[in-house]
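Retry 2 of 3 after timeout on previous attempt. Resubmitting structure tokens to design endpoint.
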């Protein structure tokens, strides 16, 4: 066992520093003693501590304690169900948290042991299993119930509940429930060895059952428990507390005060304080949905391991100085590190060793080159140029060897094995053991790059210079690069990639002379570029003032930028000038202000792969909170309103969103759009909030998509809301306005027509009054003139008749004169009667017909009767032409009855049919006639003509021996 422990300790100490990401109270965790872990369906990580509960969303912690509703601050176990509820096992009760409220379940059964001991919560098909105080309970139908397990009174120390299967450990005894039957499973141990106590039961993806015990790691094989062996040696040390399995299949085991062990097949690794983790106990282990491994430590918070793309060398690994200024390699087994304040170091076989420069103070080393002949050239600030070969140092100074200055800025070996040396005041070349001045008075040379045969590009404080066949000239691109401060180079084919201190990375095509800028505007986190290198796959890596960036170029497509920071294991976020080295195996070393960083291209690294996006907040301009009358209800977790309907004046709305990823949230890219606005998806960016202003009324749906570091995952968030159209802008309002306008137009038209009608009526009234006066005056004049003259004619005829001798002809002529004068006078009476305005009413007209009938039949044997006249008919007035035509029809018909009917009785009946329809019936009981056989004379024709003028109908019904009925029907004008 001791030998195994020594082997493990050596394994732990040999490697570099691994990128374990620690989250503690400094980052927002509620308390540093983490006891348990769980991940909910959204992707949040939940951490139970001795001081409360924390939720981590990849960026921030949200904390809960007794003030928020927990029954106690000690959280010993956690689980998440499929509905998103969080189950919390504490020292006072079991609690369920739905994001808004805590529901507590207290045990009704008295406990024999303290609840402060380690606990366990599991969810199986939404049944909650709780191991607490050495017993097992489950939640069913809203109540917590006791689970009867075999094994006597010994405390239950471990639980594994599955669908159709349950494992329970009581110390060194293991029981398995399957198909309703309990089996006992025993340890297989060497003689005399005591069985360990089982602390945790874990089933891996291959259905192997592992037991973490206080005496090492064991595995269930058939119906026996055996110690797990690595290379034939049982792994019975140290005490183990929890197990998880990463996506590669390796087991991660939390130990008691010995860090974490990783087992992959027949290899293992101990991670502890020496290589970036902790020596504390680890009570809980969890592999999240993205593949990150989480470890809950007793006193240092939680740790995350996301792969080993970057490892590091720093002060914790034996490197005295954190500021690595330059790196070189012998391309076999050694790495040389030049530091700012501690001199030269060699990293070999996992160990760091100093190589101090002889004589004098320790200088700042600015550049290293391991030349083709095995010599290491060392540039220093203030102590000249040094050669290191076969453990011997040799110095070249300005005073003794004629170099330009003791302030050496850069050394570089070109493809022809010539050594180029840059100073603060010029450039020299070292060939065949001699120095040659290439250019003097060239300030602060920062970098060299061979761009062709016998062509060297030189970066200085006064721009780019080109050495070509022994001649130094300015190198001009005729782009913005000519005015930028270029301080590092890399060549990718015929593309010159330049790192500047002000414009980021510049990609210059030396064939087309086109330049592309890659800086903060399109993805870089810093425009200060310290070093550039091209990897074996053609990607360009840039060490910047904030993190490491990989620039991927495919054809003519826009470059894709991947950022690597602390989340990916980059411990030194700021690089150093030209401190970069690519190794033959494709690995890259970066010198930073916090040690040396090693990129391993084929390592297994967890990519950010968010499973969902959450909407964290919705805000309205000018409002701290949204009026509850605008929505139906709210989300439990973030208080987001459901069915949001906003007044039209609340049309400035802001959304804050975040994809849940527990690794690399700062690398996520988002794009968004608002459906309902005529705008496409936004460009991909790191923005996590957006504001829309002056939105018109309507229905909208907000869309957000997220892309992880792999670029393939695109979860989408949608949120619908409505800005209510104001009543004055609704279709109903428009219809109402249109109707009101139409009604107003009708009213105006009605008023105009009414006024016009009143004017017309007034005009007609005046005209009628004038006409009445004219008719009255005409009647008077007609009576005075025509009536008197007719009377005089009649008198004169009588006088003449008395004075002359009557002869038949004279008598006949005078008789005709008298008769015509009488007839004319009678007709004149009718005309005079109709001219009087007072005779226009229906009553007078009908009475006129009655009078005519009585006069006509007065001296005859015919009985005449008139029926149906009412005084109310005085209210009906007929125009003069109608009254005249009506009278003339019945005068004609009465005369015909007198002359031709041979009747004994003649009657007229007046009837009102319906509304304003008058019917007049003239009946006689005479001999009658055949209407079809009678030739129509002027009399019947005139009567029909006059009926047409009344807009009426005239019917004659007559048969031989049955008398005659004449019916006139017409409508009385509405002029009452």
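Retry 2 succeeded. Sequence:
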């Amino acid at each position: 066992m001791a030998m195994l422990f020594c082997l493990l300790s050596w394994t732990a100490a040999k490697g570099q520093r691994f990128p374990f990401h620690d989250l503690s109270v400094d980052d927002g965790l509620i308390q540093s003693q983490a006891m348990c872990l769980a991940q909910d369906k959204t992707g949040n990580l939940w951490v139970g501590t001795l001081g409360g509960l924390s939720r981590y969303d990849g960026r921030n912690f949200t904390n809960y304690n007794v003030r928020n509703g927990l029954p106690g601050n000690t959280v010993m176990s956690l689980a998440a169900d499929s509905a998103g509820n969080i189950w919390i096992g504490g020292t006072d009760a079991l609690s369920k948290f739905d994001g808004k409220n805590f529901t507590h379940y207290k045990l009704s059964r008295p406990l024999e042991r303290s609840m402060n001991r380690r606990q366990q919560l599991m969810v199986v098909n939404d049944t909650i299993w709780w191991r607490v105080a050495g017993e097992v309970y489950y939640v069913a139908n809203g109540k917590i119930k006791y689970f009867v397990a075999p094994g006597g009174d010994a405390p239950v120390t471990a639980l594994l509940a599955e669908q159709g299967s349950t494992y329970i450990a009581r110390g060194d005894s293991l029981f398995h429930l399957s198909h309703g039957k309990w089996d006992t499973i025993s340890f297989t141990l060497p003689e005399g060895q005591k069985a360990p106590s089982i602390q945790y039961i874990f089933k891996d993806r291959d259905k192997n059952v592992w037991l973490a015990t206080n005496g090492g790691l064991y595995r269930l094989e058939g119906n026996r428990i055996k110690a797990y062996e690595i290379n034939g040696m049982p792994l019975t040390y140290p005490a183990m507390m929890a197990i998880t399995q990463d996506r590669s299949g390796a087991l991660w085991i939390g130990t008691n005060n010995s860090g974490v062990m990783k087992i992959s097949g027949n290899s293992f690794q101990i991670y502890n304080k020496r290589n970036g983790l902790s020596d504390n106990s680890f009570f809980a282990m969890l592999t999240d949905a993205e593949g990150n491994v989480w470890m809950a430590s007793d006193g240092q918070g939680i740790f995350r391991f996301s792969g080993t793309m970057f490892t590091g060398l720093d002060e914790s690994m034996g490197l005295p100085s954190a500021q690595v200024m330059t790196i070189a390699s012998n391309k076999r087994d050694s790495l040389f590190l030049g530091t700012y304040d501690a001199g030269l170091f060699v990293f070999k076989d996992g160990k760091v060793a100093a190589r101090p420069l002889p004589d004098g103070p320790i200088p700042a080393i600015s550049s290293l080159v391991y030349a083709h002949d095995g010599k290491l050239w060392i540039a220093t600030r203030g102590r000249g140029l040094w050669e290191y070969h076969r453990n011997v140092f040799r110095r070249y100074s300005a005073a003794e060897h004629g170099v330009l200055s003791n302030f050496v800025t850069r050394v570089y070996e070109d493809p022809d094995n010539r050594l180029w040396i840059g100073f603060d005041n010029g450039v020299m070349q070292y060939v065949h053991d001699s120095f040659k001045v290439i250019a003097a008075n060239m300030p602060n040379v920062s970098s060299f790059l061979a761009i062709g045969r016998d062509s060297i590009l030189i970066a200085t404080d006064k721009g780019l210079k080109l050495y070509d066949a022994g001649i130094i000239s300015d190198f001009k691109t005729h782009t913005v690069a000519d005015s930028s401060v270029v301080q590092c180079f890399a060549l990718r084919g015929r593309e010159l990639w330049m790192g500047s201190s002000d414009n980021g990375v510049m990609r210059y095509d030396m064939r087309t002379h086109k330049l592309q800028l890659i800086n903060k505007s399109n993805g870089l986190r810093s425009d200060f570029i310290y070093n550039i290198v091209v990897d074996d796959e053609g990607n360009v890596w840039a060490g910047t003032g904030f993190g490491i960036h990989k620039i991927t170029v495919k054809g003519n497509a826009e470059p894709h930028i991947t950022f690597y920071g602390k989340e990916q294991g980059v411990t030194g976020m700021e690089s150093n000038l030209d401190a970069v080295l690519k190794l033959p195996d494709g690995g890259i070393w970066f010198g930073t202000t916090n040690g040396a960083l090693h990129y391993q291209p084929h390592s297994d690294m967890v990519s950010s792969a968010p499973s969902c996006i959450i909407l964290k907040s919705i805000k309205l301009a000018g409002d701290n909170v949204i009026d509850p009358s605008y929505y139906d209800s709210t989300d439990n977790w973030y208080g987001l309103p459901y069915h949001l309907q906003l007044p039209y004046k609340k049309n400035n709305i802001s959304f804050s969103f975040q994809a849940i990823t527990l690794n690399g949230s700062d690398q996520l890219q988002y794009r968004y759009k608002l459906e309902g606005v005529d705008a496409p998806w936004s460009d991909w960016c790191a923005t996590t909030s957006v504001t829309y202003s002056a939105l018109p009324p309507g229905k909208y749906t907000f869309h957000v998509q997220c892309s992880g570091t792999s670029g393939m995952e695109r979860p989408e968030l949608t949120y619908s809301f409505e800005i209510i159209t104001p009543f004055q802008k609704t279709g109903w309002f428009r219809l109402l306005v249109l109707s009101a306008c139409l009604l107003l137009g009708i009213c105006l038209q009605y008023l105009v027509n009414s006024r016009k009608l009143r004017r017309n009526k007034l005009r007609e009234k005046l005209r009628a009054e004038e006409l009445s006066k004219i008719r009255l005056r005409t009647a008077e004049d007609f009576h005075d003139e025509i009536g008197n003259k007719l009377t005089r004619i009649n008198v004169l005829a009588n006088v003449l008749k008395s004075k002359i001798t009557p002869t038949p002809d004279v008598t006949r002529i005078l008789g005709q004169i008298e008769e015509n004068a009488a007839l004319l006078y009678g007709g004149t009476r009718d005309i005079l009667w109709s001219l009087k305005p007072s005779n226009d009413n229906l009553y007078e007209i009908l009475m006129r017909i009655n009078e005519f009938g009585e006069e006509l039949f007065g001296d005859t044997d015919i009985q005449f009767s008139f029926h149906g006249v009412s005084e109310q008919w005085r209210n009906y007035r007929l125009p003069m032409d109608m009254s005249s035509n009506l009278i003339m029809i019945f005068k004609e018909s009465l005369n015909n009855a007198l002359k031709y009917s041979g009747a004994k009785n003649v009657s007229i009946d007046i009837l009102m049919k319906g509304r304003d329809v008058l019917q007049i019936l003239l009946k006689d009981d005479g001999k009658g006639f055949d209407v079809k056989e009678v030739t129509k004379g002027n009399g019947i024709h005139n009567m029909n003509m006059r009926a047409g003028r009344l807009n009426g109908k005239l019917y004659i019904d007559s048969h031989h021996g049955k008398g005659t009925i004449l019916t006139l029907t017409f409508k009385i004008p509405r002029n009452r």
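Attempt log closed. The longest strand covers residues 698-707.
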